[in-house]
Every structure is written in structure tokens, then in C-alpha cells.
DNA sequence: TAGCATTAGTTTTAAAATGCAACTAACTTT
DNA sequence: AAAGTTAGTTGCATTTTAAAACTAATGCTA
């Protein structure tokens, strides 16, 4: 069964998931952040415990989508390694958001943790918080989800995100 | 072939992906944010275009993991609907991060967009930005990825995230 | 340079996941 | 009560997945 593509969906989330939404893809992307930035095929395979054919396929998808690129292992060499592109590095907020969600709701009793620290004080960074363009922190009450037409000011539909909490109380 | 579980992985990203990493799961979660908060089975199926057996399975996983819960459609009624839990609402930063990544690198020429707006000025919220616990905005140069033991200050390993960009230039 | 070791895939196979469509019991509406 | 709707359940064919073996290409060393 060919998995249904989300590319026809109006939401950018769906576009994103078409690239990074397959089993293993985000973990592969994470591995590039855990290291010097350049990873070889067998390094990825070792650290992830993924089958070679699946890793080959996922790397191709990520390369075709411009998230990673191939670079020679050595100047003039033929062996290739992979590294994140700017588009791939741009996934850092997604990675952080998911890690913070996982940290907060984690049920395992593991001993080892992966974290993002601020270099100046070596403390974990704060939970990601939405801000307005003017820099004001936004809570759930301050935001709404909308559907609109590109280039037009008129909104087709709009939902306060706070309604989620009211539905719970009611 | 049973998909390999990531639950043994040390990273919270993997824990998160075990819950929300299956094809369709994040889109289902998104659908709760696009509406009044309570969704019924057929509403989800209609808007997503997903098969009933797959939707049933995904809803079970998300319910078992505590991301959504079942509520009666009407007081005293038997029909059930679903709504996000607090744990589910906590996925908002993840949703926003992925939408913003998708928006920035979007290649389709679709006309309809889903966005998160600040209610005070009806402008799109700013791109998510990491901050230190003191509230200072952090760039890639200001952060590092680390592996450490729970409860200990000693770091096992540490990588500057900026190394990713240096690897590109070099 | 030759020989050996390593690497990055490729292929085969069996089990599981997926999507489509039909079915059905339970629930709701008229 | 009858009719319509709903939330699954089931059967089936195709695709995906993971494990393991294979192989050509590359790199290293004597």
C-alpha cells in the first residue's frame, strides 16, 4: 500500500510531514545535531540501529528534499558522507519542541538525557514560547489558528486556541 | 515487520516519536487545533481522508498515550467524541515549529494557508526562537547539544550546534 | 602494487502496515 | 418503530519494514 501523500493538504504541517514524517526520518536528522555535523552511512546505521535498505531510502528522501546533502569524506576522495543543509538546520526548533515535549511527559526511568543548553550558563534553554512580531510573549489565549488565502487579508476561518481548554472545562 | 520502537533511545525525541511519529498522527493532532476542540470520528475521517481502520488504530495509540481522551458527544449519551488533553495541547509548540518550517521551505503554489496569528494585531506570530531561562534570545552560536546523566552536573558529551554551519563553510 | 579490510549500498524474504471497500451492531433522529 | 447515521470491524491486495546475505567500489597497509 503506497502511503497516502499529504502534499495536497493546505497546511504546511502536511508539507513538512511529507519530508520528515516517515518512521526514522526525524531521528536521522537528530543524529546530525549530535556530532560534528558530517555523518557517514555506517555511523548513522550504528547509532540508530536501522536497516541499511531503510537508511538508504530515508537518506535519499531527505537528500532529494534538500534537508541533507552529500559531501566527499576526503578532499578528492570518492567516499561520500552526509551533512545538514540550511534547510535541515532550520529543523532545530522542531527538534527542540519535540524534545521538550518528550522531556515533560516522559514516563521512562532512563538515566541518560539529551538536552539543549545555553552556552553562557550551561543551563537548559527555556521551553519554547511563541512571540508576536513585536517580541511580546504569547500565551494560548493570545493566539488563534486561521485559514486564509495567500496574499489576502480576509480570513476564511478562525479558531481561538484557547477554546481547547474551555472545551475541557465545560 | 513490526516497526522498530524508539523507546529504548536515550533522547526524548525518540519517546515523543513513539507516540506521535506514525504516519497520520500529527495531522490528527493538528485537526483538533483547527476547530472547537472536540472532534468526532467521522469529522476526522472526512477532513483527513484517512481510512477508518487506520484512524481507529491511531486514535487508540493517542488515547493510550494520554494525548487525547474520549468524551460523550452529549450529556448522558453513548456516542463518544475525542478531545486533546493537556498533554496533547502541549504539542502546540511542535505543531507551530513544523508549520513554520513548512511555510519557510514550501515549494507548492497552493492558495490556502493555515497560520497562527496573534490576536492583538492579527499578524502571524514570529518564528519560534530559543531563549535562555533568563529570557535572552539564543542563536545557534549560543547553544549546544549535550548528553548527561539525570541529576548530575557532569556532561558526558557536548557539541556546539554552530559546528553544523562551520562544517558547511569548511 | 597487491592483498586485505571496510563501506555503501542492493537484493531477497517473511511479517507487518496500509488503504480500499464492504459489513454490522449500536446509536440517534424522525 | 423505522430509517438514517455512526464507529468501528473485517477481508483483501499492495506496499513497507526489518533482518540478513551479497557485492562492487573504495580505502588502507605492507
Summarize the structure.
The structure is a homodimer of 170-residue chains. Chain A has 170 residues and is α+β, with helices and mostly antiparallel strands. Chain A has two domains: 12-104, Winged helix-like DNA-binding domain superfamily/Winged helix DNA-binding domain (Arc Repressor Mutant, subunit A, Orthogonal Bundle), CATH 1.10.10.10; 140-169, no CATH class.
Question: Can you lay out the helices and strands and say which pair or pack?
Answer:
Two copies of one chain form a homodimer.
Chain A lengths: L11 H9 L4 H9 L4 E2 L1 H8 L3 H13 L3 E5 L7 E5 L1 H4 L2 H13 L7 E7 L24 E7 L5 E6 L2 H7 L1
Antiparallel strand pairs in A: 1-3, 2-3, 5-6
Chain A binds a DNA duplex (30 and 30 nucleotides) through helix 3 and helix 4.
